[in-house]
């Protein structure tokens, strides 16, 4: 609870940080949906949405990948919309964004206080970045045609939970480091 | 007492006849195709493809619309898989198949499965009896491993022989389907109907996750790399060069599309007997006939109709199923295959 309060307090009065975390979440979530195939090209222009398959909302297509329930066309984009996939994408994006913003904040605090912690804060954001990328790595490799994709394909079921755990662990570490620097 | 027993027996018979899970796919035993590796070796070579079982959902209640309606979605150069059976023509657009890989269909009471594997560029049709085929989520030699919903036996699509499960070693009953373009299929079958994008699943049917056939790009480029390991390799052709392959109990053979287009008829000796591969210029595919006496095929007398090639000396010659495939996959399944690349290489 204390950690959550510290996290909230460190972001509550920092609109720029909140905005940055939200921005990263939006961009990462969009990229995630693009790479997993939910978002793609082929739109005929204009805005059009249909939701014919709500009964499939919990139907899994693969590990942590669910059936779309609707089709949203917006200009050149086509979004096969699954509420669950969208939650996963933006949830991971928010975790990644918060990690990056906290790492940045910690770096600034340590500079102001004259600590030597700036290297470790940058280092601490590395797992977050790697974890964020891991979710879509097999798809990127398939696009690039790299044989490594076959090794990652067998790991696919573990990538999203692994990424979530890494991001949460990194978030706890950063929040604790920030708390000790403030109090 | 007798009355109640007969009611029970009738009920049991009714339940058994109504349950598709209890009826199997029609099989051929022994399989009429060469099996280039042991079944154990195939089982060892199976890899997860990413999505789980039925993660790529087969279409089990397909809807069809007219060619005019399909024109709104399809360009004449778009790829389709065509089927002509019992006097009826149907087209299955590649851009729908790439998302489902299997269509469990029925034509005039005949249950069939139209199957497509994007990673090997192969389309094959099978009689499915009262059962259905589904996508297992596994691959061998990059090829779709299907399962049948009656026995859960595992069938690599290009092999057409079960490698695992109660039907291991048995072959599926194949039917010829045509890998061609929408424009060509319409020209041959003006009254064709086409698989509708109203599939019951929400997918972006305007986008192919692997690349494009129109224009050719991404994974489908001949020189691009394959993704998964294979059981046999050859560098005689680019990995994804298209070949027309056929296999019989005598062996397997493949001809390049380049050679097929260049020569109207190709005669091949496979396993001590002879076959003729006849180019169909409209559909840009080949028809294979068993020609054990090496009868002359008169090109000028050949006729191409809805059912394939007739006339020109093909009368009485048995048709052999053939299908297009990416070279790396054909070689992986049929390591002893004959490869014909053109007139200049004829022995």
From TrEMBL, chain A:
Superkingdom field: Bacteria
Q: Can the keyword Membrane be found in this entry's annotation?
A: yes
Per UniProt, which keywords does this protein have?
Answer: Membrane, Transmembrane, Transmembrane helix
TM helices/strands, residue ranges: 12-35, 87-106, 126-146, 158-179
Kindly provide the name given to this protein in its UniProt entry.
Answer: PepSY-associated TM region
Q: Which organism is it from?
A: Halomonas aquatica
From TrEMBL, chain B:
Quick one: signal sequence residues? 1-23
Q: Which domain of life is it from?
A: Bacteria
Q: Which UniProt keywords apply?
A: Signal
Q: Which Pfam families match?
A: DUF3179 (PF11376)
* InterPro entries linked: DUF3179 (IPR021516)
- Descriptive protein name: DUF3179 domain-containing protein
Origin species, per record, is Halomonas aquatica
């Amino acid at each position: 609870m204390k950690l959550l309060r510290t996290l909230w307090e460190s972001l509550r009065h920092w609109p720029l940080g909140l905005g940055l975390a939200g921005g990263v979440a939006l961009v990462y979530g969009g990229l995630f949906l693009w790479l997993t195939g939910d978002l793609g090209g082929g739109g005929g222009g204009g805005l059009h949405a249909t939701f014919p398959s709500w009964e499939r909302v919990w139907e899994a297509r693969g590990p942590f990948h669910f059936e779309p329930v609707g089709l949203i066309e917006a200009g050149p984009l086509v979004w096969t919309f699954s509420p669950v996939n969208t939650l996963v994408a933006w949830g991971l994006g928010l975790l990644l964004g918060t990690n990056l913003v906290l790492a940045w904040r910690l770096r600034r605090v340590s500079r102001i206080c004259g600590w030597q912690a700036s290297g470790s804060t940058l280092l601490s954001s590395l797992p977050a970045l790697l974890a964020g990328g891991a979710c879509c790595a097999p798809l990127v490799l398939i696009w690039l045609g790299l044989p490594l994709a076959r090794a990652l394909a067998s790991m696919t079921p573990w990538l999203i939970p692994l990424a979530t755990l890494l991001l949460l662990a990194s978030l706890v570490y950063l929040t604790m480091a920030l708390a000790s620097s403030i109090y | 007492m007798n009355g109640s027993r007969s009611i029970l027996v009738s009920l049991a018979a009714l339940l058994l006849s109504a349950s598709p899970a209890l009826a199997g796919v029609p099989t051929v035993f022994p399989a009429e195709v060469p099996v280039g590796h042991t079944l154990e070796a195939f089982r060892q070579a199976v890899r997860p493809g990413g999505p789980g079982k039925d993660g790529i959902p087969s279409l089990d209640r397909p809807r069809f619309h007219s060619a005019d309606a399909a024109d709104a979605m399809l360009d004449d150069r778009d790829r389709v898989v065509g089927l002509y059976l019992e006097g009826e023509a149907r087209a299955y657009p590649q851009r729908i198949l790439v998302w489902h890989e299997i269509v469990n269909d029925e034509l005039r009471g005949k249950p069939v499965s139209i199957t497509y594997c994007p990673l090997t560029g192969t389309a094959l049709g099978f009689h499915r009896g009262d059962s259905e085929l589904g996508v297992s989520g596994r691959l061998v030699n990059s090829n779709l491993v299907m399962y049948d919903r009656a026995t859960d036996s595992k069938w690599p699509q290009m092999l057409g022989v079960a490698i695992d499960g109660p039907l291991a070693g048995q072959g599926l009953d194949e039917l010829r389907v045509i890998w061609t373009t929408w424009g060509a299929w319409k020209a041959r079958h003006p009254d064709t109907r086409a698989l509708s994008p109203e599939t019951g699943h929400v997918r972006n049917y305007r986008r192919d996750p692997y690349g494009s056939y129109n224009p050719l790009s991404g994974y489908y480029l001949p020189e691009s790399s394959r993704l998964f390991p294979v059981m046999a390799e050859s560098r005689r052709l680019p990995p994804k060069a298209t070949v027309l392959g056929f296999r019989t109990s005598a062996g397997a053979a493949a001809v390049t599309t380049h050679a097929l287009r260049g020569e109207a008829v190709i005669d091949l000796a496979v396993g001590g007997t002879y076959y003729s591969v006849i180019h169909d210029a409209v559909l840009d595919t080949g028809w294979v006939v068993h020609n054990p006496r090496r009868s002359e095929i008169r090109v000028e007398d050949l006729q191409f109709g809805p059912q394939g090639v007739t006339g020109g000396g093909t009368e009485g010659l048995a048709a052999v199923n053939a299908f297009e495939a990416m070279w790396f996959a054909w070689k992986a399944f049929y390591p002893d295959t004959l490869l014909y690349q053109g007139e200049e290489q004829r022995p």
